[in-house]
Design a protein that fits this description.
This protein is mostly helical and 143 residues long. The protein has 6 helices and 2 strands; from the N terminus they run H-H-H-E-H-H-H-E. It has one domain. The chain has helices at residues 7-36, 49-70, 75-79, 94-108, 113-116, 127-132, and strands at 82-86, 134-138.
Length: 143
């Protein structure tokens, strides 16, 4: 089994990916505002908040799942040499990716406790690793 990445490495990959997801969320908002029109007041937005939230989650989930299915790595994970695999070391499936994304949100809610858990876990796995039956592994440096 490959080495597992340190939590700091995982967190820095998340920061990197945030800079990539943010423009996608802005594009999502642009499309919705184009369809629904501009808002007349800040208290009554033209785009229903539930629609903005659902489509934003869909964009975020699609970003991660597409990268994970292709290579097991987002661009942030590539930069920090992290790869996501299932428990057998194979690429994760769509259902597994959906489970991981949803579970990662749960891991974030209680002040990121699901992420910090990896420091205590015997296998160094977070809550969403366990719930999605996946794991992160450190990719060796290229020579």
């Amino acid at each position: 089994m490959a080495d597992r990445p340190a939590l700091w490495r995982h967190l820095l990959a998340m920061v990197y990916d945030t800079f990539l997801v943010a423009p996608l969320l802005m594009a999502n908002a642009f499309v919705l505002v184009t369809v629904f029109g501009p808002t007349a007041s800040a208290t009554e937005p033209a785009v229903p908040s539930w629609l903005m939230q659902i489509t934003s989650l869909m964009v975020i989930f699609a970003f991660f799942i597409l990268f994970w299915r292709k290579s097991g790595q987002t661009l942030g994970m590539q930069a920090w040499r992290i790869q996501l695999v299932d428990e057998q070391g194979q690429p994760v499936g769509v259902r597994q990716g959906l489970t991981r994304c949803a579970a990662a949100l749960l891991s974030l809610l209680p002040l990121g406790l699901g992420y910090w858990w990896s420091l205590l876990d015997v296998d160094g796995r977070s809550w969403h690793d366990r719930l999605s039956r996946s794991r992160l592994q450190l990719v060796p440096k290229k020579k």
